């Protein structure tokens, strides 16, 4: 028998993948349990708030993991422009690896369910805010005058480019947006 935490984590990981690929409404709890190889009663045992709680936790987990990946890129690149280029390549690579099935780990759920659930909306907002704050912090360290504004623009532009890349099945939009953002950043720090 799997340890209690292992079953919970498997359900969460499965839900996260399914929400990201097919959306909140198209993902059924039975599908999560079947694909997560979890017993039927385990979902409400681990997630007493049901599908909404599962979505909130999946969004938070995804946002935290992507933030950590971008944070690592920020720490290991010479400047914010290079970090954003590397982030776009990371996202593009993940998109290609999934055969253009996955996109942003927040946007699919945000577009579908945020209007109907304040808890889901808040989780999505927190995730996006954490990404903006991370980039703004680096921009501030680079000496950019209005780092929050540029960071908000960067996250929004990359988010849109990720959507275009997904539907076009081509990561060129991500690369173009990253190149333009890099130029904008370099011009503000020059």
UniProtKB/TrEMBL annotation:
Q: What's the domain of life for this entry? A: Bacteria
**Pfam families found in the cross-reference section:** TetR_C_13_2, TetR_N
Record-given protein name: TetR/AcrR family transcriptional regulator
Q: Which UniProt keywords apply?
A: DNA-binding, Transcription, Transcription regulation
Query: Which regions of the protein are recorded as binding DNA?
Result: 28-47
Q: Does the keyword Oxidoreductase apply?
A: no
Species this chain originates from: Allokutzneria multivorans
PANTHER family to which the protein is assigned, alphabetical: HTH-TYPE TRANSCRIPTIONAL REGULATOR LMRA, TRANSCRIPTIONAL REGULATORY PROTEIN
Matching InterPro entries, A to Z? Homeodomain-like_sf, HTH_TetR, Tet_transcr_reg_TetR-rel_C_sf, YxaF_TetR_C
Annotated ranges, domain HTH tetR-type: 5-65
Whether Transcription regulation counts among this entry's keywords is: yes
